[in-house]
Amino acid sequence: MNATSPEAPPGNRRKPDPDSRRREICDAAIELLAEDGVKGLSHLKVDRRLALPDGTTSFYFRTRSALVHALAQRVAERDLSELTAATEFQANAAPGPSGLARLVMAAATGEPFARTKARYELMLQANRDPDLAAVVHSNSDRFLGLIRDFVERMNPQGAAIPRMVLDQQAYVLTQLISGIMLAFTAGDGTITDAGELDRIMAAVVAGIAGAH
């Protein structure tokens, strides 16, 4: 490791894996962003959250902008991974509520809730930062494609659903999910059950199909 690094190990102690350390820093930064917003995020706070030597975070991410962009990419990567797993869960016809409904409801508590709050902080900040906007929206097409696959399976088997209708169903369902998650950040717990959410999503998909 570079001798100037604050993590340069004494003796023969094993040095940390750089990629793992970056992910760890980003995950801690996500928590801090959720708690304090962009203006309250700092390299020193991340160091203190992880009990790392002062200067460690700035060694990996030289500026706060670099740190924010990196944590935005981390949020997008984790969101995409979880959404992929959730839609595969549904594709395998697992019993009980859909993987998507479970994923949405999980966003109301614990670590996923911190990421939910951080996601909306990033979206607000992205309105003033085109480079951050590009990161925040980097996987939007893939997200929408996964939702489109999900709603295609929600439609009656064998039904010839035009692509335009599938696109509308996917778009409206995406906006519904986004709105529910935003409501979570405001303390709105109107929807508390994954099965209930499945019924709402099914009604939305059926309603759009019926309108055409």
TrEMBL record:
Residues annotated as domain HTH tetR-type: 19-79
DNA-binding region: 42-61
A Pfam family reported for this protein in Swiss-Prot or TrEMBL: TetR_C_31
Annotated signal peptide: none
InterPro entries listed in its UniProt record: Homeodomain-like_sf, HTH-type_TetR-like_transc_reg, HTH_TetR, TetR_C_31
Coiled coil: none
Region (Disordered): 1-22
GO MF annotation terms: DNA-binding transcription factor activity; transcription cis-regulatory region binding
Keywords recorded for this protein, A-Z: DNA-binding, Transcription, Transcription regulation
Protein name: TetR/AcrR family transcriptional regulator
Annotated source species: Mycolicibacterium frederiksbergense
